[in-house]
Amino acid sequence: MTRIPTKQEILDWISAHPTLTSKRDIAKAFGIKGSDRIDLKRILKELEAEGHLEKRKRSYADPDRLPPVSVLQVKEPDENGDLFARPLEWHGEGVEPIVLVLPRASDPALGAGDRILARLTVVHEEDHNYEARLIRRIGTNPHKILGIFRKGAEGGRIVPIDKAGQNEWLVAEGAVHGAKDGELVEAEQAGPKGRMGLPRARIIERLGDPSAPKAVSLIAIHQHGIPDDFPDKVIEEADRAKPLGLSGRMDLRDMPLVTIDPSDARDHDDACFAHADDDPKNPGGHVVWVAIADVAAYVHPGSALDREARKRGNSTYFPDRVVPMLPDRLSGDLCSLHEGVPRACIAVRMQIDAQGNKIGHRFVRGMMRSVASLNYQEVQDAVDGSPNDKTGPLLDEVLTPLYAAYKALNAARERRQPLDLDLPERKIVLNDKGHVESVAFRDRLDAHKLIEEFMILANVAAAETLIAKRVPLLFRVHEEPAPEKLEALRETAQASGLTLAKGQVLQTRHLNALLHQAAGTDEAELINMSTLRSMAQAYYNPENFGHFGLALRNYAHFTSPIRRYSDLIVHRGLIKAHGWGDDGLTADEIEQLDRIATHISDTERRSMMAERDTTDRYLAAYLSERVGNEFTGRISGIARFGAFVKLDETGADGLVPVRSLGREFFHFDREAGTLMGSETGLLISIGQRVTVRLAQASPVTGGLEFEMLNLEDSELPRGGAPSKGKRVVRRKAAKAKHKADKLNRKLVRKRR
Length: 752
Known about the structure:
It is a single chain. The chain is an alpha+beta fold. Helix 12 packs antiparallel against helix 13. The longest helix has about 30 residues, at about 595-625. The radius of gyration is 30 Å and the shape is globular. It is found in: Cytoplasm.
């Protein structure tokens, strides 16, 4: 007879193997076969009844675990000098986890009794379950400085690069952290600011050359004035926050909600679950639950946290860091829907029919516990037939119903016809040193589209509820294209041999018809780019002008209150509308909605510019080692001083200066968006295929300069008497000019 393991042995094994927790896995680990499985099943049932385990579908797991960002209290160093800490917010009923603190060289000294906010990693060592890296001490928030280090006789000084930073900072010899003269460094305030003399700082990271990759995003943050240093009052307020209880909330902890995010996501603000609708009046229908972190329960109107969140407007994302709207204590911990951790939420239950139409919804303020934090790729792999240890147990009862509901919603989307642009998204991958390792285009999986459709549906439900209950809100507005931009798009389409419907009220289906005409042709990228350029920019407004791009009448942002202030306003509106508490939308906020809408629309644009500038600099640094290489691409823009080219390989944009095109003069036609050579008749216009040589790359500015080698597979003429090889290009250019002139004459007659 096989020896049956003790309860403690089973618990230890599950703790050490969190991805192998089914009864079959446990039996295999201990060599339990045949009738002995009955005894194993009995022990697992006893552990479940005692609260040590909970059954999740066909697997067992510790009912609670520590969040990836947690508050710890440091203990006395042990005899080996190792520093351990205990979690202050352990929800489990089992043995409290042991956490080893791993200090970095730049971390301040920690002593027994210190409370810290730390990022945790699960490990399976004999003497500890987690390893922790310090984020900061609780109750402390040293001022951050970015500047150039100037070495002195004893230590040195930091000259801030921020224009607002008027004072230099003294650095003591022991706080230099090995920095060299002229290096860009990140430092923090060391001790209180004295009344006399310069303030003191401690260098925490050397960034090297100011043009080095690690410095790129920090420079953009300072250049665009993005606040990245939380005031002390904000940190103190966040640190006082505690996990919320069940009182006044619907208990959703037994619902198998899952979060699905990018693999590198640090916070999770939305979770979902779906199942077939058992309502006989809705045959073939589905019920979709979307649960969103209840940020409003922690960030109250008029508080220091609220004022800072409004000031920032949104989180800003860079390839190597995030500037969050809320401090880590909230964004990475209490307001993040971590796997296995009870979290407060606002959830919406939505009924959709078999055709994907929403036929009803209701909101609740609840308490949930995510059964799994999944990423897009592993979810897609599972549904495609390759589940892993984590997705396998969830496939039948969680993932398959999610995809069934998505299939219905996708059918409704096809009927609604939102704008269907084909614009691949770039992803810059950095190595440990901050250098660009690769530039890839993100795959658009059904898993991505599933979450998008669920979030859109929840956003519509939020807007409809607040409209029905007459509670003011901030709408996400996207107006239709301006007539002049639409006319320019129509002319581009005609020049490409395509048509865009005219003489009727513009709808997204008309633009989609144009995009589908171009799909698979040489003009596809040109038409997609031109359509995007014709679009108005989305913004926030207390008045509802609809969302043209999504083809929706009522739309508001509800699903990301950790990273968008607009969503927090909508959450407060829902709290007010349902009478859930005194943390809802206030009369003062309602009065200021116009001002808030303008401000957060501006902060959104500020973040977009900073993110774009950072991407340009990273790409320039990446390509700087390939100066002289040839690349293929397309003309993406025309200006008097040259043509802009977007490279196929990386999506990087650069300039071909007019001066590099030859000795002839080039005529710039603003309306047609063309450059034409005065001698050769060479016509350069948006969308043409080109081969270019990289002539210059400037990581500091993010600028790229190209030399054009080929245009539409033909060599470029360089002015003067054309050679035999150049006549082909001239004939093509003359033909293109004749076609453009004919089109222009036709358009002029129509306008008359």
